[in-house]
Design goal:
alpha/beta, eight-stranded mixed sheet, 40% helix, Rossmann fold, 20 helices, single chain, 21 strands
């Protein structure tokens, strides 16, 4: 696919006056409309009077798709075609909705997105590129839009009933992979997947969907990418041809690898190239247009909700990353939380938990910044950085740029919050950046990473605690999977031996010296904790009771955490009956409460220090108030 570094251009826009030239580079340009957030990618050199509107799937599939959409948008930009991707009402970074209007509310958001795209790109014609449930939205809005030149259907949702059954199976597979017990699953009612619940009326409308009965195709051209082993996809393509559409059909190579897990998802670049080529062909068949003016600037006004205000923005050198600054609409009472992403999940978080967390913090007077690090979701990669950015030193710069933004906006003090790989990154950033006043790390796999180790292998074969292995082995389903070969027994045995070695090393300290790799890791980790102690950085460690991260923690601080006692700045919380992602609501409540406590304590500490040095006026301007944390 085309090089993403080529996306540097001058783009014309009009705002109540003469045309001014804007320079574009880095992450896509955020815009807000109809209570949601869109990401506009201008064309490097506009070549056609048409722009592309992306219509996403829902839930877990959307999270897996996020990076793929961004790559495809960048390739279209390099080919001279602008595009817009956005969140449906009540999803992602959009404001929540109080009324469940059914699937029509997402169609309304899509119609508003199409109007926004036309005004940003200065064109009347659009091409719709959809995946999954987005295909039904595409057909619905195409009937009401003027000049839809083509619709691309990637793995389309044809039967609503089949789709909902598929989601149920998908949900169970995801929960099983996370080690959730039946009692921990939030599946008592409705449609759930990966911590997200589908609104009931939307689910009811989806149940009625049957694209196979389509009587009219509302566009001259179409593209259908079919999934292997899904004959309904090919039958849908045939149906569109029978309706008179100029339909191109192909295989969606890499679909299963894309939607299996966002942490290890492989981008289907060949499929993306197929889509980009099709869009270019559709655009090339249109009449040329000499003038190209936008009627609105690419600007993101804050979205205002219940006691919070969210501003989509770009950060870092060259505006290379995308994020959301969430602030209280009332008095600020606490330090700013920098909420780091986990693995390759988008900044909205697993099950949209980071969005809910940020807004709850703002209601308590606590600002926060959530953003995608480079090469994650909506942030393009750093030039020269490795493709695999997790546990790499390249990410330290990303967190430093987040602190630069917070400092420039006079929102210090600030602290970092992260889970799993984000917890590791948070620890490393806290050690390196003296502007960091606190650290909350949740279920970090480790505090130290040997750069010679393979991150990809570790992500695909993440070990679990010995207790979890014991429970799994006693389950009938696990025995069946062992017998039919669906479990990688070599990796499982290797992981169990690694856990055993660490467990024995915890019991006998001399073994740390005997095994050099453990000894080096131990010394490096304690050095980092000493740095944080000497700087007075508050540290909160949170673990699920059977998380594999506790094996690493215990290696350095003992099974009961007794070694942590000499660090008066650190505290440990172990949550029973919780998975790695803190899916159960009680576990998430503990997490949020810990963030609130640290934010308010750091805010009070800063306020006291400023008052003591005679800067009361500054304290008032920053709206800090004294607070005694419980």
């Amino acid at each position: 696919m085309a090089a993403r570094e080529a996306i540097k251009n001058h783009y014309e826009t009009v705002e109540e006056g003469p045309v001014e030239t804007l320079s574009f580079s880095g992450a896509a340009m955020p815009v807000t409309f109809s209570g949601t957030v869109g990401l506009f990618t201008p064309a490097v050199k506009p070549t056609a009077p048409v722009a592309v509107l992306f219509l996403s799937p829902w839930g877990f599939e959307e999270m897996c798709m996020r990076k793929f959409w961004r790559i495809l948008a960048e390739d279209l930009s390099a080919a001279g075609i602008a595009s817009l991707r956005f969140d449906y009402a009540g999803t992602g970074d959009a404001l929540d909705v109080s009324e469940d209007k059914g699937l029509s509310i997402w169609s309304e958001t899509a119609l508003a997105a199409a109007a926004t795209l036309k005004s940003l790109a200065g064109c009347e014609r659009v091409i719709l590129v959809s995946q999954g449930l987005g295909s039904a939205i595409a057909l619905d809005i195409a009937e009401r839009l003027h000049a839809v030149e083509g619709i691309a259907f990637l793995a389309p949702t044809i039967s609503g009933r089949f789709y909902l059954r598929e989601l149920s199976v998908w949900s169970k597979m995801i929960d099983e992979s996370m080690g959730l017990s039946e009692g921990q699953r939030e599946q008592s009612d409705g449609i759930w997947v990966a911590g997200l619940k589908m609104p009931e009326q939307i689910a009811a409308d989806i149940r009625k969907l049957n694209l196979a009965s389509l009587s009219k195709f509302p566009a001259p051209a179409g593209l259908v990418l079919t999934r292997p082993g899904r004959p309904n996809d090919a039958e849908f393509a045939t149906r569109l041809k029978d309706l008179g559409g100029r339909i191109e059909q192909g295989v969606y190579d890499g679909y299963d690898e894309l939607v299996s897990n966002p942490t290890i998802a492989t981008m289907p670049l060949d499929a993306g190239q197929r889509v980009a080529n099709w869009v270019r062909l559709v655009a090339a068949a249109l009449p040329a247009k000499t003038s190209r003016k936008a009627t609105r600037p690419a600007r993101a006004e804050p979205l205002v909700g219940d006691d919070f205000r969210e501003t989509p923005l770009r950060l870092g050198d060259g505006d290379r990353m995308f994020g959301i600054l969430c602030e209280p609409t009332g008095v600020r009472t606490g330090a700013t939380a920098i909420l780091l992403t986990t693995a390759y999940d988008r900044h909205a978080g697993w099950g949209r938990t980071t969005v809910a967390m940020a807004r709850n913090l703002a209601r308590s007077g606590i600002p926060s910044l959530r953003f995608d690090t480079a090469n994650v979701a909506d942030s393009p990669p750093q030039p020269g950085a490795p493709e695999q950015v997790l546990y790499s030193e390249a990410q330290y710069r990303d967190v430093a740029d987040a602190f630069n933004l917070i400092e420039a906006r006079k929102l210090l003090p600030a602290f970092v919050v992260g889970r799993c790989s984000g917890g590791y990154l948070g620890f490393q950033a806290a050690v390196r950046d003296q502007r960091c006043s606190g650290l909350i790390t949740v279920n970090p796999y480790a505090f130290h990473w040997d750069q010679n180790n393979s991150v990809d292998e570790a992500l695909r074969f993440v070990p679990r605690s010995l207790e979890t292995y014991g429970q799994k082995f006693l389950q009938v389903e696990t025995l069946k999977r062992l017998l039919n070969g669906s479990v990688d027994t070599g990796s499982a045995v290797r992981n169990i031996l690694t856990s055993l070695l660490r467990r024995v090393a915890q019991l006998r300290q001399p073994l740390l010296d005997k095994f050099s790799f453990l000894s080096r890791e131990h010394a490096t980790v304690l050095k980092g904790f000493n740095v944080l102690k000497n700087r007075g950085v508050e540290v909160s460690l949170i673990y699920s009771a059977q998380d594999i991260g506790l094996e690493h923690f215990s290696l350095h601080f003992g099974r009961t955490g007794q070694g942590l006692q000499k660090y008066g700045n650190a505290r440990l919380t172990v949550i029973p009956d919780a998975d790695h992602n803190l899916t159960p609501a009680p576990a998430r409540a503990i997490y949020v409460r810990e963030i609130q406590t640290m934010a308010l304590r750091l805010g009070a500490r800063r306020g006291s220090a400023q008052a003591a040095t005679g800067t009361a006026a500054q304290v008032k301007s920053q709206k800090y108030v004294g607070y005694q944390a419980p």
